[in-house]
Amino acid sequence: MRKQIIVGNWKMFKTNSQAVEFIKSVDSKVNKDSNIIAGIAVPSIMLSDVQKVAKNIVISAQNCYFEKEGAFTGEISIPMLQDLNVKYVVIGHSERRDIFGETDEMINNKVKALLLSNITPILCCGESLETYESGKTIEWVKSQITKDFAGVSPEDAKKVVIAYEPIWAIGTGKVATPEIAQNVCKEIRNIIKDIYNEQVANEILIQYGGSVKPENIKDILDQADIDGALVGGASLIEDSYLGLVNYKG
Ligand code: PGA
């Protein structure tokens, strides 16, 4: 049986002191005995301080660069994350792709570098409204996944967490129906099976992201091929975050 993984994505919200207060307040209220990994991806400036107070919540970064060090002003390296004991990094979020011009080639380099360092990439994929409306979702996601997993071995591939996030559902309040989300996540599992094999496809964790809230998380996570959620807006408020990670399945 696969685990579930529910991760808040704070994007560019909160200050360091607000983040520390939040984690201090919710960490002990996270249900430790469940099959759910509870995480929060915080802005990198907060990683060090929140790591010190998070016991039950796993802390994730929101991005990193693939080179170990060098003249890359403003970037965060993997050794810097390892030094803070960070275990997860969100890679290729649609905001990184669309606003900051990240390509699948860069994302692939990041995935490979993280896996070499034993950090789990939470690899985002997903289509625009235009692609969705033209019925090309699967084709689009297949192309992203094929490029983002290029050169990744089957043993490493199953360690990746895939986050399927239709761009039209992010921050819009327009959640994909559980059926739509399930259908795409199932196809993603098939794509992984075609690239690798049945075992990798069965083991890999696939999240859905896009307007997930405490009110709809159960219906989404009840779906056979959805193993978790990547949650923006609803992860910023304490009660709401706890409602997500402590949801009753
Ligand atoms: P949302 O964001 O939950 O606010 O729609 C999801 C995400 O961007 O990861």
From TrEMBL:
Positions contributing to substrate binding: N9, W10, K11, G171, S211, G232, G233
Which molecular function terms from Gene Ontology are attached?
triose-phosphate isomerase activity
Output the Gene Ontology cellular-component terms: cytosol
Cellular compartment(s)? Cytoplasm
Q: Which Pfam families match?
A: TIM (PF00121)
Which superkingdom does the taxonomy of this entry point to? Bacteria
**Catalysed conversion reaction:** D-glyceraldehyde 3-phosphate = dihydroxyacetone phosphate
PROSITE patterns on file:
TIM_1, TIM_2
Q: Which GO BP terms apply?
A: gluconeogenesis; glyceraldehyde-3-phosphate biosynthetic process; glycerol catabolic process; glycolytic process
Which principal EC class is assigned to this enzyme? isomerase
SUPFAM superfamilies to which the protein is assigned, alphabetical: Triosephosphate isomerase (TIM)
Question: Which keywords, in A-to-Z order, does the entry hold?
Answer: Cytoplasm, Gluconeogenesis, Glycolysis, Isomerase
Q: Which InterPro entries match?
A: Aldolase_TIM, TIM_sf, TrioseP_Isoase_bac/euk, Triosephosphate_isomerase, Triosephosphate_isomerase_AS
> What does the record give as the active site?
H93, E165
Its main subcellular localisation, reduced to a broad class, is: cytoplasm
Pathway, per record: Carbohydrate biosynthesis; gluconeogenesis; Carbohydrate degradation; glycolysis; D-glyceraldehyde 3-phosphate from glycerone phosphate: step 1/1
Q: What is its EC number?
A: 5.3.1.1
Q: Which HAMAP family does the annotation name?
A: TIM_B
Q: Which NCBIfam families does the entry link to?
A: tim
Assembly and interactions? Answer: Homodimer.
Would you identify the family this protein belongs to, as annotated?
Belongs to the triosephosphate isomerase family.
Its function, per the record, reads: Involved in the gluconeogenesis. Catalyzes stereospecifically the conversion of dihydroxyacetone phosphate (DHAP) to D-glyceraldehyde-3-phosphate (G3P).
Q: What is this protein called?
A: Triosephosphate isomerase
Tell me what organism the protein belongs to: Spiroplasma floricola 23-6
Gene name?
tpiA
